[in-house]
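README, section 4: Worked example with a bound small molecule

Sections 1 through 3 covered apo chains. Here we extend the same pipeline to holo records, where the ligand is supplied as SMILES alongside the sequence. The molecule in this example is zinc ion. Nothing else about the input changes; the structure line simply encodes the ligand pose together with the chain.
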Amino acid sequence: MSSTLTRTLLFVGIFSVVLASSHLLTHEKQAEVLRPKPSTLDVSGHPGTLLSGIQDWFASFATLADMPKEERLRLLREENEWKNRLVMWLFPNSIRERIPHFWQTWCRCYLLCAAVYFLVGAIWSYYIYFCFGDKLFTPETIPAFKDVAEQIRVSNIAMPLYSMLPTLTEYAAEKGWTCAYPRVENVGLPAYVLYFFLYMASVEFGVYWMHRGLHDIKWAYRWLHYDHHKYNKEHTLSPFAGLAFNPIDGILQAVPYTWTLFYCPMHFLTHEILLFATGVWTANIHDCLHGQVWPVMGAGYHTIHHTTYKHNYGHYFVFMDWLMGTMHTPEQYEAERAASLKPHPAPMSVSASVTASGSEKKQH
Ligand SMILES: [Zn+2]
Ligand SMILES: [Zn+2]
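The generated complex, written as structure tokens:
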């Protein structure tokens, strides 16, 4: 446990240093804007300076200093209204105009979530079970219709609540409580790439610990995460299990995508695409087909998670499990399974064993 704590602190330390150093990654125009602004914490002086020092430090990120805050928030709000219009054309104008912006956003997120879930699940299942089922599976490993129907039922109950997460995240971004920025030009491409990697590192870290916590904390497993672990055999998992969670469980595992926005600058549309891409990803990791693409933590790893409960908690990549010592590769799993299935030799008497080894020698 102490080594896990040390590794966790090491990760947080390196992350914080790189995030703090990202101030240096400003192009010329931004450097001019930034020069007069304080970029370090000033803890001396009158009470309240620590808080304003922290605010100044955040404000001095290239992203936030590039344009006035009001302009940044106006662009974020406009972008969200544009996304609402793209999806909400389904509603007649007279009805749509009466729905408040917040609930239009929720409707849009819900419709997109359902579209991703059903389209990806249906297309994926059609190809792996109906088109290539005889090549990819043995008959007893194809899930029964009743298991898939149960996964769809659980997902349908959870989706309206899942949709609250991106809705509240957009609300927070529009209010200016996050470090989200609307345009790549706000930071320039190098900083965009750096922040992207920092953001994903924080998400991987957060998802790992959320998921591990949902196993290690007994009541959390029993009341929240067990609903997803009912499907623990290869013939009960399917792409439709991807969103089959207790809604609180599903939100907890996705919330690192939101909380990271509060301390790591991130292009907002990229953040939303990544959040909805998890719908595609979870369909993929529940199909039980091991793609063998290092360092991706694909279905082979996740099937092991569903059968051992104590390995492979990670999100997209194997790094967090490797760092925390919980990684178990499909190759290791197969080797162990083959060893356990091997018939144990019948106990032999000493003389029989000597004869056997003698005859073995003769054969060489
Ligand atoms: Zn789990
Ligand atoms: Zn799962």
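What to look for in the output: Residues 68-284 form one domain. Residues 26 and 203 are 24 Å apart (CA to CA).

Section 5 describes how to batch many such records.
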